[in-house]
Amino acid sequence: MTLFELSCIAQYIQSFKKLHYIKRINDMLFKLELRGGGQDSSTSMSNILYIDMERGNSSIFIAPAPLTSAKHYSAPFDKTLEKLTQTQILSCVLHNNDRILRLRLLQRSSYKQQEIYLQFEFSGKHTNVIILSTQEIILDALRYISSSQSSRPIKIGSSLAPMPQNPNTHKSLSSENPESNQNIIKLLTNTYTKNQAQRMQAQKQTIITTLTRTKNKFNALLIALPESDTLFQQSQILHKNATLLLTHIYELKPYQQNVRLYDENNQVHNIALLPASSPQESINQMFKLSKKYAKKAKNIHKEVKNLQSKINFLEREIEFITQCKDLDMLKILKPRQINKAKSKTTTYGMIFFIEGFKISIGRNERENKTLLENAKADDIWLHIRDVPSSHMIIHCGKHKIYPQILEKAGEILVGVSTTQRGNFCVDYTKRKFVKIVQGANVVYAKHQSLHYCK
Questions:
Q1: Residue 405 near residue 396 (C-beta atoms within 8 A)
Q2: Residue 89 — pLDDT band, cuts 50, 70, 90?
């Protein structure tokens, strides 16, 4: 983004009268909705600007559809930023004709009004967002910079030092084609397309690599599972040896590791005792292990089914990621590291976040059932109508869920639940209106529907 293009963007923003709202939707990505004036006084995508403040890769763009945040930001800086909603835009300029976009805003309340500067600095490694008073006192900032890091420190309550002047400023402004100002919306839309193309493949590869690693782990566990017949055979041998040892327990010595015994048919058996404090304790452990093997042999098919269902789910998820054309969606689906030591709750199924709301999807019947049983009454339940698929829970409690969150959640549910093409209907309702019939089979009422074409 050249200096002249940034100047055109400043003129475009100044054509609007109001900053309807501003918020952070990613760690370094800001969403601004402008109202009044501009190309269209009504709300449209051209009224919404996204400002990416990533160091060394900052940009401003317009997206073809609203971008959704995975996380809800509530840091002190974000609280200060919230106060700038519904403010009047007095001016928008390049401060000192440098790569600093400064909005002069007018805050009004029932008892006072004041002017505030909202400043976006596109300055390489020190790229920053700063909120200032008209006396240029720093009220808050995205990044704080100490005096040891820079000769221009950023600290709340201190005066903002001027940015060192770029000697090529006037040359850069005069050398650009002035027609760019007339095509600013097209420029900003093209910026989004270019940025998305550059980051899409890298983001996909990162997610697919993580999911493939998890899939390989489940495959290894599946291959390592013993056969049912083998477990039954081991169980019988252990029980037989334990019974024989119990019959000859008076012959056993403490801490004996191996023993040679004859059964009732006068056949010899060489038996290795399990490590224990006494022969009796070793025999008890052998009986317990025999029961464990018998139980595992009886239920091993359930473990096979559980692992296979998780593998199948991951394969559908990988295909969904591969076909995804939305960078916003990839950021939501990027697997998160969960600190098991700090986590107080057990997690089930696939978990992701939209606008700070935790969303869970069951990967098999067991996880579907667990999610249904653990969900709160006011949580939102979603399921694809007439299709054997995963259950989804939006863990919102009594909090309001906005339509765009439901739309995005339903799209993900369809994407990871089936590889079929066609039209799908996703029903959703509060968990309290869903009744478990058997296993993960349910009946539900008071539902609404979302429609998707895949």
A1: no
A2: very high
